[in-house]
Specification:
3-stranded antiparallel sheet, 2 domains, 3 strands, single chain, mainly alpha, about 50% helix
Length: about 150
């Protein structure tokens, strides 16, 4: 029966998932240890993954490229149904949830870019006047001592 394709296997080995996803086997083991993906063990103690793991791995990789922490990704993946691969609607829901965080990081990076020249250009990197480290000298109001300098400063 030439030209017929073999039926797709219901489950994939860790090597097949690695090949199809472009990830190292060790990365898949790491994701599994973090609870991001799951496998079952065969009688010979080999990992077997459902085909839906390929879509889950794709979501993980895209989210990581956005700078989303693995813990946050894991929480989002827990909201997905386990009986089927994530759909486009599932992705839209996850991505909308992450959009606000991404927009805030873009705002902060834009501010950093816009103030970078004047900060470095001043030559002193003064804590009192630096628009990046101490915008509007707000730290002076808190008194002396160490401070976490993450203020957004406008």
């Amino acid at each position: 029966m030439k030209g017929r394709k073999a039926p797709l296997a219901r489950e994939l080995s860790v090597g097949e998932v690695a090949r199809r996803s472009g990830l190292a086997v060790s990365a898949l083991h790491f994701y599994e240890a973090k609870g991001l993906i799951a496998s079952r063990r065969t009688a010979g103690n080999q990992r077997r993954y459902g085909r839906d793991v390929l879509r889950r791995v794709a979501i993980i990789k895209v989210a990581q490229r956005l700078g989303i922490p693995l813990a946050t990704i894991g929480e989002a993946l827990k909201t997905l149904p386990e009986a089927r691969p994530p759909t486009a609607a599932d992705w839209r829901r996850l991505s909308q949830h992450w959009r606000a965080d991404l927009d805030e990081r873009i705002r902060k990076l834009t501010r950093l870019r816009d103030h970078l020249d004047e900060c470095i250009g001043c030559g002193c990197l003064s804590v009192e006047t630096c628009p990046l480290r101490n915008p509007f000298d707000t730290l002076a109001e808190e008194g002396p001592g160490a401070r976490l300098l993450e203020g957004d400063g406008g």
